[in-house]
Amino acid sequence: MTTHKARLPKPEERELSEKSAERTQLESDLADRELRLTSLHAELFAFERQYLRQVGLRYAELDELKALLAERMVEHDPGQERLHRAADQARARAQESQAAAGTEGLEAPPTFAPTAEIKSVYREVARRVHPDLTSDRADRAKRQTLMAAANAAYKSGNVTRLHTLLAEYEGSPEAVKGEGAGADLVRVIRQISQARNRISEIEAETEQIMRSDVFQLRVRCQEAAHAGRDLFQEMARRVGEQVATLQRRLQEQPVEVGS
Amino acid sequence: MKHTRAELKSGSTTISKRASRALAAQSAALVRRGLRDLARDSNWLIKKLFTRRMNELVISPTGQVCATSYDARASRARISIFDIELSVPAFNLDVPYDQPPERPAERAPFAWSPCGRYVVAAAPDGSQELHLLDVQARTHVRLLNSFEYASASLAWSGSGNYFAASFAAGDFSSIRLWRKASDQELSLGRAEGEIAVADWIAARPGNDAAEDVGSFRNYGTLALSPGDEWLAAVAEIDGDWADDYLLLARVPSLRLADIHAGQGHITDLSWSRGPEQLVYCASGQAFRLDLESRKASPLPFAAELFRCHPTQPIAGCFASWLKNSAKGRLFVANLADGTVIDECPAEGVVDIRWSGDGTKLYAVTQDGLAYAHEVSI
Fold this sequence. Notes:
Helix content of chain A: over 70%
Number of helices of chain B: 2
Mean pLDDT of chain A: 81
Number of helices of chain A: 8
Strand order of the largest sheet of chain B: 1-28-27-26
Order of helices and strands of chain B: HEEEEEEEEEEEEEHEEEEEEEEEEEEEEE
Radius of gyration of chain B: 22 Å
Oligomer: heterodimer
Radius of gyration of chain A: 28 Å
Low-confidence stretches of chain A: 255-259
Shape of chain B: globular
Structural class of chain B: mainly beta
Strand content of chain A: under 5%
């Protein structure tokens, strides 16, 4: 009769097991946070484009009319230097508004509304290929490329592309692990450290986004929507009233300097 | 660029596509404009700067807000800088206090340099140090001096040539003034002038023997005139119904030229430019003090905070209550005709300031709301 003695795990194996569990938890946490951050970016991008289309274009129209009015004043009284300066400033502002709203606003994408499926796939991609979850330099570079592609696919709602990216990484040699418990332990500890650093970065970036004007504008729009109001429509109407006033003034002849 | 009248009719102004250049910045400017216009009816941009409650907040000419924060884990006080104008994260500056404050700051006066780059910060809670910080470089420059008493209020002149500080020490309280040597950093060595409590107690108007030195509580707001000729200071008197005193002293000697009894507690001082006039707020009412006749007359504004515009006859004001309402308001007043140009409901405002070029008025509340008003001049 042969007695089989169960082998006790070595200290580094026990430590590796604990650290691996910690890393798994961090992977999940990091994937959630990346999902939220990427969603926030995409939502604000779509929101800003919607704003530019509905309100920004009206501002561009208003600024164009202001520039025309200023130029009309110069034509009426060309000797006044301050009128030339005012006209130049008005024209520069009109061009800036036109550049921002004219190009971006007209090509505004639909509102960002990710499905549960794409969220789930993106989260899995982030958990598996996040560049801060590897300590290997070559693997990290590959993961960075994949993560950038995954972000783009998520923002454009391309779930097929996300599945392809995941399969692509799973089949790559970088996905294969193992060099003994000691080496694995060092690798896992470094991965935990990187993941924590990235979580801190995400927190800081999220805080910065929440201080941004576009985020604050979105909060105001959401509050208004809860009260049954369409804030963009209200804003566009107000600017439209100013546009109408300027159009009336431009049709009056002559334009009075200082009016 | 010529346009026919037909082109200008409604709906016919075409917005042609242009190549994008710095589009992110340009579209951000359009978003900021929309956010600001949202607050119209008025012309106020309102932002949340921070979430906790802070009392000692001082705004710079570039729209940054300085405050003391407390790191409970490290048991140390830090200076926090928030930005009203730009959507950038707040940052902290560590100050190497010789005597680190042991509890969260209740009061820590600050004074911004006129260019908005430097800030002089007093240590919170009774420590006697004054430190110079470079906010642009995000560094502590140096300890300016460690005094025998704690600072109560600080002021930098508009020219940047003078710096004034008051020190709270009961009967030994004082106000001191330093001159900055040309092309040199601020140095708080030997003061150019000093006002001691005894200097004005005996000379104050309606001097009554029954009223003794003990009624003096502290020095309040300090304000140097735009031409560096005068220093105005508030001497706070104890008691709910007491009148504070307004001290007017010559710069740089700080020789007292006038002691004026305010109509109640004085909450703010501000100098207007050419002709120089001093405006003060007492018991929620704004008054103008004529420097020649030394007579005060009420302005048609209820206000507790008052800032004259650097060049124009207008002022930014805050009143904590409105007639028939518990609500307060921020407003821009025309000093020439006594009218209110623009206003916005606001509560708990602790500081207001004009930008260096006078195009914007900033205000901040103790619970972290910041207001920016763009002025068309």
